[in-house]
Amino acid sequence: MAHRRPRRGTRRTELWRLLTNLLDADSHPADDLLRLYHRRWQAETCYFSLKSTILDGRVLRSRGVPGLEQEIFALLTVYQALVRMADDVTTATPGLSAQRVSFTVLFQAAADQIIVAPGPARGSTTSLIGAIGRAVLANLLPEQRRQRLKARYRKTSSKYQFQRDQHPRTVQAYTLDFKIVKDGDIDAGPDG
């Protein structure tokens, strides 16, 4: 069970199902697996942003492993810096939801600053958000209510005509038979 506390203060409980081949509950507790699954999706989001926004469809240039590692490390560093900038913008602007910050605008504003490279003026103080943050605030995404997906429901109408005697009219009973295959067991006969 996963528990969340929405802003209204109510408690919401959800049942999570995770298919895995890590079957030893003592070595791999369910809570740990759920946390790892969440971290996996954070990494997937990061790599998606790298591919779609920062790389913009381009491929990595290096032809060797050390060069590829260096390029990927540089991209991850840029991504982390951009995420930190988005965090600075939301921290400096009370009530601003992080969902309204456009990663594309953030990236473009940062790229523009690198090209211009103005640097801080001598003797001036720098605000938390700076030029990049001001560009982001000027181009916020519209405020949207989070869409909740409706549970699947049975359609009352279908584009396919029902054909009598073609479908079972009663509930069908099925038996699921399975065997856990361990190393070396794959070639064993049905009795072991």
Query: Please, how many helices?
Result: 4
Taken in chain order, the helices and strands follow as EEHHHH
The parts where pLDDT drops under 50 for at least 5 residues are: none
Largest sheet: 2 strands, antiparallel
Account of the protein in words:
This protein is mostly helical and 192 residues long. It is 40% helix and 3% strand. The protein has four helices and two strands. A two-stranded antiparallel sheet has the order 1-2. Helix 2 (65-92) crosses helix 3, helix 2 packs across helix 4 (130-138) and helix 3 packs across helix 4. The mean pLDDT is 76.
Short overview:
Helices cover 40% and strands 3% of the residues. It has 192 residues and is mainly alpha-helical. Helix 2 crosses helix 3 (103-116), helix 2 crosses helix 4 (130-138) and helix 3 packs across helix 4 (130-138).
